[in-house]
């Protein structure tokens, strides 16, 4: 099925600057057909952005779908008068949609941080630097399977706290009672453990690149 989609993309010709301006003029006048034509013409950009994540086919398809939503949002928000190329404007929204999808997928595996402790940041926000780019995000997706191994390298108390909070879904109060420390100390161990785990994952990512 993916091969068929790629063949479809190959039939799409890139718009010339004049064609691009003409379509935007029609879109400004409410032309739905022109809007559809513009979105279709930028489908290859979405696919190219998605393939940079180097994911398996099933996940790649879902990422392309998210990217198409980002492309449509970009069409809705683009301001021709600012003089910024639409492709440059769109790619940021497309990437943003894809990154949000990956982060949400990670959280669905039970890897989100306790919101009360880290102000609604996710576990991966703390473990990995998302500013690095799409290639790193793809590697992080692969490294999710190694998370338990990384946690096993932490000091015993930090390991117990992170496993309890993120894997076993144990409350901070229960953990504090089980290892006879205060709840505040649990959160201190949590922060230390996350910091160490992030460093370990960063080293693994570096090794994969080489």
Can you walk through the features of this model?
The protein is mainly alpha-helical and 210 residues long. The protein is 73% helix and 0% strand. The protein is built from 13 helices and no strands. The chain has helices at 2-10, 17-28, 32-41, 43-51, 57-77, 86-108, 115-118, 123-127, 134-143, 147-151, 156-167, 172-178, 183-209. Helix 5 crosses helix 6, helix 9 (134-143) packs across helix 13 and helix 12 crosses helix 13. The longest helix is centred in the last third of the chain and has 27 residues, at 183-209. The chain is elongated and about 70 Å long. The two termini are 32 Å apart.
First-to-last CA distance = 32 Å
Please report the number of helical segments: 13
Structural class: mainly alpha
Mean pLDDT: 76
In percent, how much strand structure appears in the residues?
A: under 5%
Radius of gyration: 22 Å
Low-confidence stretches: 109-137
List the helices and strands and how they pair.
Layout: H1 2-10, H2 17-28, H3 32-41, H4 43-51, H5 57-77, H6 86-108, H7 115-118, H8 123-127, H9 134-143, H10 147-151, H11 156-167, H12 172-178, H13 183-209
List keywords for this structure.
single chain, 210 residues, mainly alpha, 13 helices
Quick synopsis:
It contains 13 helices and no strands. With 210 residues, the protein is mainly alpha-helical.
């Amino acid at each position: 099925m993916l091969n068929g989609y790629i063949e479809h993309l190959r039939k799409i010709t890139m718009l010339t600057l004049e064609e691009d301006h003409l379509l935007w003029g029609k879109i400004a006048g409410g032309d739905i057909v022109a809007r559809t034509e513009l979105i279709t013409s930028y489908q290859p950009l979405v696919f190219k952005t998605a393939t940079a994540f180097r994911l398996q086919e099933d996940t790649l398809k879902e990422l392309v779908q998210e990217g198409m939503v980002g492309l449509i949002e970009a069409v809705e928000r683009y301001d021709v008068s600012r003089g910024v190329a639409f492709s440059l404007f769109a790619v940021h929204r497309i990437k943003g949609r894809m990154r949000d999808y990956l982060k949400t997928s990670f959280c669905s595996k039970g890897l989100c941080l306790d919101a009360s402790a880290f102000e609604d940041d996710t576990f991966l926000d703390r473990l990995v630097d998302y500013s690095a780019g799409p290639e790193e995000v793809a590697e992080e997706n692969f490294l999710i399977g190694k998370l338990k191994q990384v946690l096993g390298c932490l000091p015993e108390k930090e390991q117990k706290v992170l496993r309890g909070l993120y894997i076993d879904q144990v409350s901070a109060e229960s953990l504090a009672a089980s290892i006879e420390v205060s709840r505040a100390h649990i959160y201190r161990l949590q922060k230390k453990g996350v910091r160490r785990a992030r460093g370990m994952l960063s080293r693994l990512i570096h090794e994969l690149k080489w």
